UniProtKB/TrEMBL annotation, chains A, B:
Residues 107-512 form the Aldehyde dehydrogenase domain. InterPro entries: Ald_DH/histidinol_DH (IPR016161), Ald_DH_C (IPR016163), Ald_DH_N (IPR016162), Aldehyde_DH_dom (IPR015590), PaaN_2 (IPR011975), Proline_metab_enzyme (IPR050485). The keyword rRNA-binding does not apply. This is Phenylacetic acid degradation protein PaaN. Gene3D superfamilies: Aldehyde Dehydrogenase, Chain A, domain 1, Aldehyde Dehydrogenase, Chain A, domain 2. It comes from Marinobacterium zhoushanense. The keyword RNA-binding does not apply.
Length: 579, 579
């Protein structure tokens, strides 16, 4: 019925758009089906190679990506929009580079009206066409992974290899995961049904019914400074594939990665005949933030947010017109009870504590160790010996300048530098934070991790998030008390990761119980090439949505199924002839 | 790991419970799988016969059901509970009978502590065992459908046939639908996975991972007076099968149907070795309501509510610790544009307007008709002629005393009687509401529908819910204006049903667009044995969750998937040997 209506409209782009979007869908269907399957089996899988190699991406890909990034510097960034309400230009690379890119701020009311107008064609296109467009966007994002890596590096401060992986392929994985989960959820609703209810000797009652997936409305995705793509794509793509136009509000310090993403989305939407403004960017400045205004706009029905607990809680409580998905602060925790491979454990944790200078929502902050020491493969070792072993491992790991540059990266926010300074007094310094010079960028904000030893009684010090490269080695009465502290702190403050090291099955079982109780993902005895702060799309659920660190999970059914409703339409039909 | 832990506990009932619950699961697995399939194809299906026939339920079933109901009158109703904080005894049948049943109010803190203690074994049992228990509860509810019918009749005022169907099999269908949808959602998460990530020439990274479905916490289901089972079972069973203990807070006027349901649930839980208090009833009185206290309890993480918009909106905004699912008031609407079978349409609408005296969340209230008349199979008829035809059809339909008793039922709440009186002045009376005598119950509150003719300009009269047997025939400038009014009223006040009558494909298409726009279920040209106020489990989505009448849908994926989180547990394993 709808299609025939639209065919009568000579201005409609929908016929053309359907075929283009349908072509995208067919081109990417195998990937989509594989992604759905991966989300069900949860084995490793990714269609987007994570290695920044010329053999995979093309020998000129790196140079072209860098050139594309550099071409944006000092320029106006071009995006489709309706009416210009202002301009922002605030980004400064944590490596010291002044980016000088100017972004236009769209007129909000004009943009929302345009998005609402464009939403119908996007809804009418259907789940397959929308999935096709989303997969094409992801495909092109993948092709521009080098450019994205430079953009992510120079906004977040991540080292280049991490900026490539986390900002590129891993973020694309998370986007694809959201598309697959949402597409699969939509496909669980049939487009139509014949309903025939027997009436004994009388003719059956019979109806034809149709079911339409209807988007909730405008979706607002509030991006964070440190992972402007990885934490943004799940909400963006889950909303978009279910039919909702998406406004991305970047962090003022990390606009470019969002702008590139939005630009690609707009190009694909336009090629497929849809309004490019269905995905739009609304930047703001630190001095004149706009998120609250957007979040309380009556047309905004979905909000995804990554950032502070304070603002996340405000969104959860003050936007009753919207479904609100938040990832906030937490206190990630490690419990060390006993180890049978101390060197490997220390190596593993040295990487975890150093990676991106602890500016990850998954980095462990609190390391609980019995004050009387623990059993190890090197014999019974005191708390101090373990603390020293960990500190030495971090020092040794970071003694290589290339590792410093690639793993630590730079501190995204000057406030983090300040926080390291202020935290020194919170405990005994086991490993002091040292400034690091970057061989290429003299202005880089780089520091090694600060490791502090504190007592279990020093709750004020460790029982809150201290974002950045700051770790507490906490001396407890026993593993028993370590469990109690982990339970209490996570129940109150939340956590995205919990790690445990123990050679005792009973302790591992208790850790499993604790994880279920406070609803946090658990990693046991990691001592190889997987780290507690890593979360792999299609396999790892990132955050549970069940403790104060986040009210949503990347990506479960609840994350996608709340973004659309089903509207049915039914009418009588003659009863089928009975045999 | 958990099972071995529990086996070490001699007080654990879990081994026995697992096997009993597992037996229930196996006994009902075919039904469960058929229910999952029905929810996907959405054809008619029900395992619970809706006909109150002795040939189906046993020749003595009616007499036994009646006797069981009568045996509760004037007695203390026995349920498992921990600590008695008070008693309530307020139910008066809308048919005039004083029920005199006393219910104990549990001590809230004691009950919640007990539920939290019982939750672990219920979670550990797993999705299959929980589904088995839920299906056994539903099976036993079905066996007690006659007893339930008398209980529903004498609390809600529904006529016996409707009390049997809506209070019994149809409610059981809705419960089973929720179990099936939730079980299917849980099954989309694997219990474990092997994760192997190739590392080129290096050994692969390999992990074993497990995923546990973890309930949100205590679930509060706030039942309504008019449909104490139909509107309660979806939330109750969706929460229970996903592992959450459930407190049902009945309406003070309709406690018995909830008490019977809770008693059966407790019996099955206890038989399977679980704490019966995992499903508990907390009754209150009109003078001392307890819902707000329960709803804001920090342990309460899920709230299902059916009732007024005022209270539903309060719950949505004032219980940030919980996921809140509401069904509230709305203004259901019919648009009459043209008909090709006036008699059949009038017969159909006469039933819709009379059924349970309009005390349904799906009953049409506003009937929009062009003031200049419409095309019919009897020629062009004026607004007044259509109004008269509808009124005559209602009168004719209700001229049969048996129809009066069975279809109208009694008015549940004296406030509804009052509302009819107060509404008479809102328009021109087309059909006046008349008192009806019940042949068996002299004290029955029964009245025929009130039909008022108003002008489109009389917004004050019709643009709000006037619950009960009150319908407005609204004279509009045109079908165009009918659409506008429907759009505006539904956008502002919400609706669960929208009906349209038209012989024009273009008008039906516009109605379909309107339904998508304001997110309401649409029924087109109903003129046979299906009525706009009927909603069939497994096929019809009841409410969309997308307009002000409800923020949730019975039963979509969002309704079930928000009731649990997934907690993962992963550890390294040696890389698989490469070939």
């Amino acid at each position: 019925m709808l299609a025939s209506l639209d065919r009568d409209d000579p201005t409609s782009l929908e016929i053309g758009s359907m075929s283009k979007a349908q072509a995208f869908f067919e081109a990417h269907l195998a990937t989509l089906e594989r992604a759905v399957d991966a989300g069900r089996t949860r084995d490793f899988w990714s269609p987007y190679p994570e290695v920044p190699s010329g053999r995979i991406y093309g020998e000129t890909a790196n140079a072209e990506g860098r050139a594309a990034f550099e071409a944006t510097l000092g320029q106006r960034y071009e995006l489709a929009l309706t009416g210009i309400a202002g301009r922002v230009c605030e980004e400064v690379s944590p490596y010291g580079l002044e980016l000088g890119i100017t972004y236009e701020v769209p007129d909000i009311e004009g943009l929302i009206a345009r998005m609402q107008a464009g939403m119908k064609a996007w809804r009418v296109a259907g789940a397959d066409a929308r999935a096709g467009v989303c997969l094409e966007i992801l495909h092109r994002l993948n092709q521009r992974s080098f450019e994205m890596a430079y953009a992510v590096m120079h906004t977040t401060g991540q080292g280049f290899p991490m900026a490539f992986q986390a900002g590129g392929p891993h973020a694309q994985d998370r986007g694809l995961e959201a598309v697959a989960m949402a597409w699969s959820a939509m496909k669980q609703v049939p487009e139509r049904a014949s309903w025939t209810k027997p009436q004994g000797k009388h003719p059956a009652l019979a109806m034809e019914k149709s079911y339409t997936i209807v988007p909730q409305g405008i979706s607002l995705v509030v991006a964070c400074a440190t992972f402007p793509t990885w934490n943004t794509y799940p909400g963006l793509f889950a909303s978009l594939v279910t039919g909702n136009p998406v406004i991305v509000k970047p962090h003022p310090g990390s606009v470019l990665p969002v702008a590139i993403s939005v630009q690609i989305a707009q190009q694909v939407l336009a090629e497929a005949g849809f309004d490019p403004c269905l995905v739009s960017m609304v930047p703001d400045s630190a001095a004149a933030p706009i998120t609250k205004t957007l979040a309380q706009h009556p047309a905004v029905k979905l909000i995804d947010f990554t950032g502070s607990s304070e603002f996340g809680n405000w969104l959860e409580r003050n936007c009753p017109q919207a479904q609100v998905f938040t990832e906030k602060a937490g206190v990630n925790t490690l419990i060390i009870d006993s180890v049978d491979n101390l060197k490997a454990v220390c190596r593993n944790l040295a990487f975890s504590l150093s990676l991106y200078s602890g500016q990850m929502c998954t980095t462990p902050q609190n390391i609980l160790i019995p004050r009387d020491g623990i059993d190890t493969d090197q014999g019974y070792l005191s708390f101090d010996a373990i603390a020293t072993a960990l500190a030495d491992a971090v020092s040794r790991f970071l003694s290589n300048p290339e590792v410093q540059v690639n793993v630590l990266g730079a501190l995204q926010n000057p406030a983090t530098v300040q926080r390291i300074e202020e935290s020194r007094g919170l405990g005994r310094v086991v490993l002091d934070s040292q400034p690091v010079e970057h061989p290429e960028f003299a202005g880089a904000r780089m520091q090694t991790p600060l490791m502090l030893s504190v007592d279990a009684a020093d709750r004020e010090a460790y029982a809150q998030e201290r974002f950045g490269p700051i770790a507490f080695l906490i001396a407890t009465d026993s593993t028993e008390q370590s469990f109690d502290i982990a339970r209490e702190v996570i129940a109150e403050k939340g956590a995205i990761t919990l790690g445990v090291y123990s050679t005792s099955e009973a302790v591992l079982e208790r850790a499993a119980e604790l994880a279920l109780e406070v609803k946090v993902a658990l990693s046991c005895n990691l001592s190889g090439g997987v780290f507690v702060n890593q979360s792999a799309a299609f396999s790892d659920f990132h955050a549970t949505g069940g403790n104060p660190a986040a009210n949503a999970c990347l990506t479960d059914l609840a994350f996608v199924s709340r973004r659309f409703v089903v509207v049915q339409n039914r009418h009588d039909v003659p009863a089928p002839v009975q045999e």
